[in-house]
């Protein structure tokens, strides 16, 4: 038996035997320094079989990190070369807290640059081994950001091949049903694990036993990718009345499914976020009633502070009109009425528009037509309310007629202003990629309050000839 | 052949032959007068077979009305006595506009008193014949009020018997699947059409063909009644992760099913109503963007009018403090800040509580603890904001120190008041059976605005020694 000869290799003239050892020691050194970028770089020219051997010799905490630094193509091959027991240990390592900490501490950008997709085979095995909670905590290591399909998917599906018969498939279902909860859809994969079709249990049951899956499957499959946003996923499920939707990776390999009950939970959470945003609260899906009071106060104070700031602007404007108010002190009595009504009209318009955006009702009309409609509605409402306010001021508060008329005219102007800004701001915020629900309310309040008192005082000055 | 002899009957000594004719003419007269109560009364002592014959001789528009006036028990028997072709015509009659108008014009109370449940057999046949739109328009005639399970259910289910084998059942599915879209659950009924169990398609597929349905069915069925509220239905489906839920009548006879996609639509609509209510809008599930502007204005003006009224109260209070304001006109500058912040703090508390109520999070804590928590949060927020406002007023607006302190103290008091009333009012409204989402906002605004300015002016008077 001859010793293997030194051969030319990117790592110099080492004997094949020495390569895994050298790679291992270099990797360990770089990982200890925390230089993940460097570690990734030195792995590129190395053969999968050598990387596999190098990884087998590393301490456990490092194995998982080193494996995650491989490109998807490489990871697939390296994984195949690992001993079955080491494959298992590696999957276990993904749960280790020190491993999670290293990836968790990186910025999302770094993470996205560093971590390629995991091979679908590894994802499937990993997802099946982890509890939902463990999956949540290892999801960053997988490269799945919060709220994406990769985070939400479950591995409990049954896959079949095109050339299986209906009766073979039914047999497979009987065998696998204890481990796969959701069997109303079966997913058809080719030899590369690529999703090629879908068969519902219904189709299966009403077909004759000899038919082939390829004859009864639907080839026009609606699927999502691991990085598809959860809200988009639940919208698709709802739109098509699906019971589940498959999740695939970049090469259209099936890695999991998302079921309708999870989609409903996502919808509920998104709704809570929208409602909280409209009510001026931050939310990230935690259970509000389990938070500490300090967290509660922190979540709310930012928003209140913004509103306090806008109120100080209004206050400063009023303060600058002291001469006018000293002269006609009764003008003060109408400030809450004007700003309050303006705020309410604006809130109505923005509520309608924000809810309409989320339920796709608005696309049929287009922003300009919506804003125009709201403006007219504001004018109508302003006229009705302005008339009532004038009557109330003149007859019940018995102010001078010009003051009463001034209040009425201001109310019409403020209502139009409020309904136009209330309907326009959500579109504007969406256009600049801010959450319409979160951002509209304080800006509407600002615009309406500040401009509202300005309009009021200027109309009053006109009447007074000041 | 002997003529039937006159026999004693509640209708006097008529020959059996004459009874249907007499009943028919009496009924026609009463129905023409619109006396449905009277018509119902005269039917009570008559034998089902005679009623059937009487109905067969009536003009079409009256047949359906007369049939609907029967008690459920009687209706079942009368229906059995009708000729198949007449059964069919009767079902057609339920679609007639003049028939629908008669029932539609009655008050809900009268309707509920007059109309007993329809026999499940008739419901099933009727539901299967009518399109969803036709079902909606005839639903009042059925006695199903808007938003109840009876309105939403579909008749597309497959029923099986306990003593059928798995293979027989699969055969039945193959036969019926073109007409029954939803076959993931099969419903087990006894000879009386009573729901006794449920079998999922999954259970069926993984069982051996010889097993009996009674061996594999789940007997612990979760069902709803025709008058169960749609929101409750969708909550049940969501809670148990069902794909569908059966709808039964009073005798637990299966009349339809509600599927998860319909439940999702209900949830979406309820959410829109909640969001609209929080934004101060009325909603009844119409598409807002298809309404005329007059309808839009009408929907909003009621709410705005209520808020205008509360603002006039605030205005009157300010007006009554003219002496104070004349003396220290700068006090005016802080009114929008105080009422605005109070409104925002109150909105946050009520949003959290209202959303929590709908998602059942709050039951774990109980109202008192929730209100207490909110009160403390309000005190915390008020202290932070009050301090900021005092600093701003003193250093930037350069008002006198006592004015700045007065603003700060008022802000703390108003925040506590706002968070307590914002969290307490939804519970109060729920207790008196008003929609918390719809009713809370204007009351919080009133309470906070009115009490807020009162607190502010009184604290100011204290400082001034007035």
TrEMBL record, chains A, B:
SMART domains in alphabetical order: CBS (SM00116), MgtE_N (SM00924)
Presence of the UniProt keyword Thylakoid in the record: no
Membrane topology is:
Multi-pass membrane protein
Q: What's any one GO cellular component for it?
A: plasma membrane
Query: Which SUPFAM superfamilies is this protein grouped with?
Result: CBS-domain pair (SSF54631), MgtE membrane domain-like (SSF161093), MgtE N-terminal domain-like (SSF158791)
Keywords on record: CBS domain, Cell membrane, Magnesium, Membrane, Metal-binding, Transmembrane, Transmembrane helix, Transport
The superkingdom of the source organism is: Bacteria
- Report the main location listed first in the record: membrane
What Pfam families does the annotation carry?
CBS, MgtE, MgtE_N
The answer to keyword Transmembrane applying to this record is: yes
Q: CDD domains this protein is in? A: CBS_pair_Mg_transporter (cd04606)
Q: Which Gene3D superfamilies match?
A: CBS-domain, MgtE N-terminal domain-like, SLC41 divalent cation transporters, integral membrane domain
A Gene Ontology molecular-function term?
metal ion binding
| Domain named CBS: residues | 153-215, 217-273
Question: Assembly state and interactors?
Answer: Homodimer.
Q: Which NCBIfam families match?
A: mgtE
Spell out the PANTHER family in the cross-references. Answer: MAGNESIUM TRANSPORTER MGTE (PTHR43773:SF1)
The Swiss-Prot or TrEMBL record describes its family as follows: Belongs to the SLC41A transporter family.
Please explain the role this protein plays, according to its UniProt record: Acts as a magnesium transporter.
| Protein name stated in the entry | Magnesium transporter MgtE
Which source organism? Oscillatoria acuminata PCC 6304
